[in-house]
Each structure stands twice: as C-alpha cells, then as structure tokens.
Write a structure and sequence with these properties.
single chain, about 600 residues, twelve-stranded mixed beta sheet, five-stranded mixed beta sheet, 25 strands
Length: about 600
C-alpha cells in the first residue's frame, strides 16, 4: 500500500502545474479534472461520503483516497470504460456491491487498502487479472536490505520509498534491483557520484522539494534506463554541470522547476533524444543559449513561464520540431526575432501573456501553421503601422486567441488589435521611452550603443523610418530648405516630427537674437552677441589679418533666406553676403571707433 500513498502525494504536485491545462467538461464538485498526461479526476481528501455521480466518461484515472466513503455501488463506475487506475484507499469502505467493477476491462491498478471495516469481499468482486494484483499488493514481502526509514516493496515494480523522512543524505544501502526511488520532501543537500551507481535498473527518481545545492559530476552516470527525473523545487540548485544528464538517452520527463537557475550551460540537454516533457518554469533564467534544445526533437511540452527572459532569439528554440505546447508567459520578453519559431510547425499552444512586448511581426508567426491556442494579453501593444503585419496574420489565423489590448496611441487604448480597421493602423506613434520604437534613443538598456545588428534595432519597422533612414540610418543628404518650416508641420513620421520641433526652436532663437541686435547698435553684425565693452586685447588686432581668415571646420549651417515679412536692408545684406565681406564692412568701423575712444 505504501507505493500508492507515495504516488498519491505526487499527484497533488502534478495537479498544481496542470492547472494551466483546460479542465474536462462535467467535472464533479470538489474535484479537479485535467486532460494531461491522461484524463484524470482527482477528488482526494475532500471529505466525500459517497462516490461522485458525474464522472466524465473518458476518465482514465480516478483518485478518491483519504475520504469518508462507505460503499462502492454497482453503478459507481459503470460508465468509465477507459479507466486504468482507481485509488480508494484510506476510506471507511465496508461493502462492495456485486458488479461494482464490471465492465472495467482496461483497469490495471486498483487500491482499496486501508479500509479497516472491509472485512468481507465477494468472490466475484475482482473477476479477471486484478484478483492477483490485489492479493499481491497485500501479501508481497518487502525487498531485502531496505534502508532505514524507508519502505521497500516489489510490486508493481521494485520500489524504495523514503519520502518525508527528514533525511540529510541519500541512503547508501539501496537494493540494486530497485526501479523506482522516492526521496522527495527531505533535507538532502547533495547528489554524489556514487549515490545511484549500483541501481542500473532505475526508471523513476523523485527528489523534488529538498535542499539540494550541488550535483556531482557523474551523479546519474550509468542510469541508461531512467525515464523520469524530478529534482524540481530545490531553490538552492542554481548551477548545473553541462554533463549532468549525459547518457540519459531514455529519459522522457525532466523536472527542473523552482530551482533558482539563472542560466543553463551550453549542451546541458545534449543527447536527451527521448525527452518529451521539460519543466523549467519558476526560475531566474535571463536568456538561453542558441541551440539549447537542438537534440530534443521529440520534446512536446516546454514550460519556461515565470522566468526573466528578455529576447526570444532566432535559434533559441531550434530543433523543437515536435513541440506541441510552449509556455513563455510571465517573463520580461521585449522582442521575438523573426525566425524564432521557424521549427515549431507542430506547435498547438503558445502562451506569451504578461510580458513586455509592444510588437510582434507576422513573419515570426507564419511558421506556426498548427497553432490552435494563443494568448498575448497583458502586453503593451503599439497599434500603429508596425502592428499591421500581426493584424494581417490574425486575418488568416483560425485558432483561438486572447485579446490584444492597445497601449498606444491614446485614441486606441484598450481596444483589441484584432478588431481594428485597416485605417486605424496608419502612421507611427512616437514612443521615445521604448528603445525598440525610437531611433533617437541611441543607448540600449544595457548601456551599450545599439548597432544595426542589435535585435532591438531590427524591430524598428520601415514604416517608422524617414525616407532617408529607409536606405541608410545615417544619411548624407542635406536638410530641406528651412523656408519650408514656416510653421511646425504635422507628419506621420516621428523623425520628421522631431526635426520640425528642432527647427522651430532654432527660429525662435534667431528671432531673439534679431531683437537684441535692434536694441544694441554695436551688436548689429557677426559679433553681435559680444558685449559693447570690447576686451582690450581686441584693440591690437591687425586689420590685414581679416583678409586671411581660414574657413571654419565646423559644418556650415544653411543660411536663412529673407522671409516674406519685410526686413531691413542690413538684415538682407547680412543674410546674403559672404562671411568675409561682412567682417570687412562692419568690423573695421568698429575697430576705428575703438581707437578714437582710446
């Protein structure tokens, strides 16, 4: 009976992460129903006095242990013909009606142990192979050499159960023929290279919810038959050796959730060709190396939610050709590169909600031809021209999706991007606070200057660049004639908007200078910004030097033309004459006046 209790406790953990899976229809009250990995109805420890009547007919596993059931009726399970596992241990069952298990031809495991009032069993209660199974579970002797504080049994598979025993180290005398070892919920701190060196038949190893901080090199060496490894919920396990899982070619399930991992070493999953389920959620992963999952061609579930990933790069998910479910929600993703999903042609479920996305290209989504469930809510979508490729993709998408609430522009805030009209996506919102949406913010968040190869620069769409920037970020073309900026021009281009603002401020500065010139007679020339009281060192300047002035090395500013508003002759002369002529005409009288005053 001990093994069934162990697996029942394990089931509670599974229920927690499977809350993300849609529940089955018609789930009984006080029960939890889920579809993966098998259709299951979990009603343990609910104080039930009778077996629920509305059990979904496609259920394969039913857990009713640790309740207050008293009788199993002939109709209790008459409709669940696909049932393979049924646990009802630790109840108050005293009677099993004839035919209670009739029709359950696929039932493989039945546990009605720990029911002290069940003193009589009908001769026909377990017609078929289950009679032997039930008798074995009650009569089989324990394995030889069982470690202290552990329970060992041989059926249905040789098992060593040492969970919740307060162990500080892994027992040393584990029977060599053990196939399952349960060490969860203890106080283990290290997995040594010799801990499991003698149990080459091991298929299941659970060590979740301990204090493991270190796994020695070769700790799982030789466990070529291992199928399931759970070392999740060890918050101090922050570093894993690149060769920690080397040789586990038959491993199909690996739990590394809630381990405090900030990075995964290159090649850590190399050679895990049979892996189907990988749980990496609830860690501190900031990024993943390219080709981290290259050997995982059979992986179907990848859970990466609740980490700190910022960018989904082109090759981060390469090789996942069989992936069915990808959970990336509750990260810090700001950008998905265009080829990030190229290998995910079989993906049916993609969760990207509650990240920092502002845009997502249609080109990135095009490879997801099998996608059925998509969640993108909880991001700050910019609904302008850069959202049009995603909007176009949604017109072709036939699956189910969450809403995409617009964050900008303000006129569309709160509206669903998918439901917008084509005209709503004109123009380009200027959002300088977002690095990836403004070329004027030249520094990335890391403090390094953005380059054209930077993924954030890549995300700046052509519709948000000026005509010059579409051909080159740095343009050699001259600025337009300033006379065209008589007033601030409103455009759909943020670059031109900023340029107009800059020109407006320049004209206001020139107007201020002109007013000053009118008030100060001696400040009416190129030296007009200088004080009327000239520095005495100016008195000794040789006028002949004025004829040999070197041109300035600073870029020349385009000269203003006379505006339509009449200006003084002196102003027009200044605007059109060359710099040297103006200095000769205006500075020489100034010099003579200074001599006269001295």
């Amino acid at each position: 009976m001990k093994t069934l209790i162990v697996e029942g406790g394990r089931l509670l953990c599974l229920v927690l992460w499977l809350n993300l899976v849609p529940v089955m229809n018609g789930c009984p009250a006080k029960c939890v129903c889920y579809s993966e990995p098998r259709p299951t109805v979990a009603c343990q420890q609910q104080g039930l006095f009778s077996i629920p009547t509305e059990i979904p007919i496609r259920s394969q596993r039913i857990f009713l242990q640790s309740n207050k059931l008293t009788v199993i009726r002939s109709t209790s399970f008459s409709s669940v013909h696909n049932l393979t596992v049924l646990w009802m241990y630790s109840n108050n069952i005293s009677h099993i009606e004839a035919g209670a298990f009739y029709g359950l031809e696929r039932l493989e495991e039945l546990d009605i142990g720990d029911n002290s009032n069940l003193r009589i069993i009908s001769p026909t209660a377990f017609r078929g192979r289950l009679l032997c199974l039930v008798l074995w579970l009650n009569l089989v002797p324990v394995m030889n050499g069982c470690p202290a504080k552990c329970v060992c049994y041989s059926e249905p598979r040789p098992t060593v159960a040492c969970q919740q025993q307060g162990l500080f180290s892994i027992p040393t005398e584990i029977p060599i023929r053990s196939q399952r070892i349960f060490l969860q919920s203890n106080k283990l701190t290290v997995i040594r290279s010799t801990s499991f060196s003698s149990v080459h038949n091991l298929t299941v190893l659970w060590m979740y919810s301990n204090n493991i901080s270190h796994i020695e090199a070769g700790a799982f060496y030789g466990l070529e038959r291992l199928e399931e490894l759970d070392i999740g919920d060890n918050s101090n396990l922050r570093i894993i050796s690149p060769t920690a899982f080397r040789g586990l070619t038959k491993l199909h399930t690996l739990h590394l959730h809630r381990c405090g991992l900030s990075e995964l070493p290159m090649g850590v999953f190399r050679g895990l060709f049979s892996l189907q389920y990988l749980y990496l959620q609830d860690n501190n992963l900031l990024a993943l190396h390219e080709d981290t999952f290259l050997d995982l061609a059979n992986l179907t579930y990848l859970f990466l939610h609740n980490n700190k990933i910022k960018v989904v790069t082109d090759h981060m998910l390469r090789g996942l050709i069989s992936l069915d479910r990808l959970l990336l929600h509750q990260n810090r993703i700001i950008h998905v590169q265009q080829r990030a999903f190229n290998d995910l042609g079989k993906l049916t479920t993609l969760f990207l909600f509650f990240n920092n996305l502002t845009m997502l290209t249609g080109e990135a989504m095009n490879p997801l031809v099998s996608l059925q469930y998509l969640r993108l809510n909880g991001n700050q979508w910019i609904c302008d021209c850069r959202a049009r490729p995603l909007w176009d993709w949604f017109k072709r998408f036939k699956g189910s999706s969450s809403e995409l609430e617009c964050h900008l522009p303000n006129s569309l805030t709160g509206k669903d991007l998918k439901r917008l009209k084509s005209d709503d996506l004109e123009g380009c919102v200027d959002s300088p606070s977002q690095v990836q949406t403004s070329i004027f913010n030249t520094k990335a968040r890391s403090g390094k200057f953005l380059s054209l190869d930077d993924p954030l620069v890549e995300s700046i769409p052509r519709c948000c660049l000026s005509d010059n920037d579409k051909s080159s970020i740095i343009s050699s073309k001259s600025l337009p004639d300033p006379s065209s900026y008589n007033s601030r021009q409103i455009t759909n281009n943020p670059l031109k908007e900023k340029e107009n603002i800059s020109k407006t401020k320049f004209r206001e500065l020139e107007r201020t200078k002109n007013e000053t010139r009118n008030k100060q007679s001696l400040n009416d020339g190129p030296l007009g910004t200088m004080s009327n009281n000239l520095d005495q060192t100016m008195d000794k300047i040789n006028p002949d030097l004025l004829d040999n002035l070197e041109p300035s090395t600073a870029p020349t500013r385009k000269k203003k033309k006379c505006s339509k508003k009449p200006k003084s002759d002196q102003y027009c002369l200044k605007a059109h004459a060359s710099t040297v002529q103006v200095l000769a005409v205006l500075f020489l009288p100034l010099f003579l006046v200074s001599l006269a005053l001295s």
